[in-house]
Amino acid sequence: MADNENAGSEEQQLPQEECQQSEPMEVESNSQAVPSDGNKEEESSQMDECSEAPGEVLNEAEEKSEEKMDEAVEGGMQQGAGEGGMQQGAGEGGMQQGAGEGGNQQLQQEEPKQDESQKLDESEDNKTESKDAEDKKDPDADKKDEQDGEKEEDTDKNDETAAGGQKDDSKLSLSESEVKKEHDVYEMAKLKRELERNRTFTFPTSLEDFGYAFNDDGELRNIDSGEKFEFFAKKDDHLYNQKRYEAIGEIITEIVYQKLEKEVHLDKHVVPTDATKEEPQTFIFMSKDALSNPDKVMVLIHGSGVVRAGQWARSLIINKNMDCGTQIPYIKRAMQEGYGVIVLNSNDNYVSKGERIPIRENGNAENHTRYVWDNFVMKSKAKHIAIVAHSYGEIGRASCRERV
């Protein structure tokens, strides 16, 4: 705006400059020309000359104004310093334009440049100071910023966890539904098993009635076909087959008891030793010299399950032969080597009279083993005691060693 105003003032002054050729004029700050010398006629004649060609004067003034503006923009106008307007140079035959207008244009253009450079310098200084301040920032503030960032991350994670928890809850509800369904299936199967268990069967009381017998090699064979034992007597009735197998096993237990007495000549001894005829009781087998042998005695302990005195494994007796599944070969060899023999019956712990009634001091395998140890083995005169234990029988053997 300053450039445009200065340019306008030049356009008003330049026509007067063309007219004022005869005498010098003084110019005040309000740009009104006041004659210093001469008369009014000379002034009127000069004004007449100006009015004759006003267009030419204006054109020349515009051209000169544009040239001056270009020169001011490129390098500034090198003119004499003035206070605020044009000074007339004395003795030079015309007016010299002072630095009031052209100089103002130059100053007005240079000052913004200086202001801009000054602002840039100040901005750089501010950035440097800000960077220094950040470098010198309290480390506690950095920690606080890091903690705030961690809190935001934790918040995000909690939100994700909450969202995931909602999904998990839906899955959990489905799982509970599935579990309930499976539970119902399980309960139905359990009920079915209970009903199956309550089924009663009547089986023969001898191997011959089942159609089986042991041959001379101690193998259980079908009497008619000579084939091995067949578990699946009825293909679609597992409970019947299992109960049939157990019934044959009970018969084999009695056969083994008989062999212990008749084949290897062991004696049956009641346990507890002071049991009455009315109370539940069991028994063990001993050789005749088990308590009197001065040198050595062997104690045989079977494993857990349905096996009884003289057996290692009922399945081996049924599917292999008598020697593989019973203790009879051990007993024969021990007696040949001069051992007295004691055979425990640690799984015979109760009697059934409508309900299970435990045998006094022999209610489980460990108690039975301790009772036999205290009441029979420790009364033996043997200097050496050998214990042969199978499977869970090792627990009984360990308890016996603690009592030595």
What does this structure look like?
Strand 9 (350-352) and strand 10 form a beta hairpin. The chain is 53% helix and 10% strand. With 404 residues, it is an alpha+beta fold. The radius of gyration is 65 Å and the shape is elongated.
Briefly summarize what is shown.
This protein is α+β, with helices and mostly antiparallel strands and 404 residues long. The protein is built from 12 helices and 11 strands. The protein has helices at 2-19, 40-52, 54-74, 102-135, 139-197, 207-210, 238-262, 314-319, 322-325, 328-336, 365-375, 393-402; strands at residues 26-27, 33-34, 212-214, 220-222, 267-271, 282-286, 296-301, 340-343, 350-352, 356-358, 384-389.
Which SSEs are present, and which pair or pack?
Elements: H1 2-19, E1 26-27, E2 33-34, H2 40-52, H3 54-74, H4 102-135, H5 139-197, H6 207-210, E3 212-214, E4 220-222, H7 238-262, E5 267-271, E6 282-286, E7 296-301, H8 314-319, H9 322-325, H10 328-336, E8 340-343, E9 350-352, E10 356-358, H11 365-375, E11 384-389, H12 393-402
Parallel strand pairs: 7-8, 7-11
Antiparallel strand pairs: 1-2, 3-4, 5-6, 6-8, 9-10
Strand content: 5-15%
Number of helical segments?
Answer: 12
Shape: elongated
Number of strands: 11
Largest sheet: 5 strands, mixed
Please supply descriptive tags for the structure shown above.
single chain, 404 residues, alpha+beta, five-stranded mixed beta sheet, two-stranded antiparallel sheet, 12 helices
